[in-house]
């Protein structure tokens, strides 16, 4: 039976929750999360915890923020003038926008006034302790074509 190691395509049936038990994400019943092990497709600490498992193995991994998406950084939240947002881009709370310079990745709109936009560059899961629970659905060696895409 193929063990999870670098160069394997892995399918996971999972539930992701925070430290209060609130479900943040889960794989649909008929659709597992698929990633290539060793190709930075999932959080490194989770990948490390899955190393060596085989199809059918259960997992239950709790990650502190520093092992997941980092701490929430107040300095990653900025307020800019509305005219600094790419022209013609509609603005709504919760949407991702780019500034007019194009020098920043898209950021989450967390506040709006008539003249300003508040943008948050933190990952949506930053600052959270996360619990990944589930089952390894499938493990197989990646094809040459899949390996070439990494």
Automatic annotation (TrEMBL):
Its EC number is 5.2.1.8. Pfam families: FKBP_C. The keyword Magnesium does not apply. Transmembrane segments: none annotated. The keyword Cytoplasm applies. It catalyses: [protein]-peptidylproline (omega=180) = [protein]-peptidylproline (omega=0). It is found in: Cytoplasm. Signal peptide: none annotated. Coiled coil: none annotated. Keywords: Chaperone, Cytoplasm, Isomerase, Rotamase. GO terms for molecular function: isomerase activity. InterPro entries: PPIase_dom_sf, PPIase_FKBP_dom, SlpA/SlyD-like_ins_sf. PROSITE patterns: FKBP_PPIASE. Residues 7-71 form the PPIase FKBP-type domain. It comes from the Bacteria. Also involved in hydrogenase metallocenter assembly, probably by participating in the nickel insertion step. This function in hydrogenase biosynthesis requires chaperone activity and the presence of the metal-binding domain, but not PPIase activity. Belongs to the FKBP-type PPIase family. This is Peptidyl-prolyl cis-trans isomerase. It comes from Candidatus Litorirhabdus singularis.
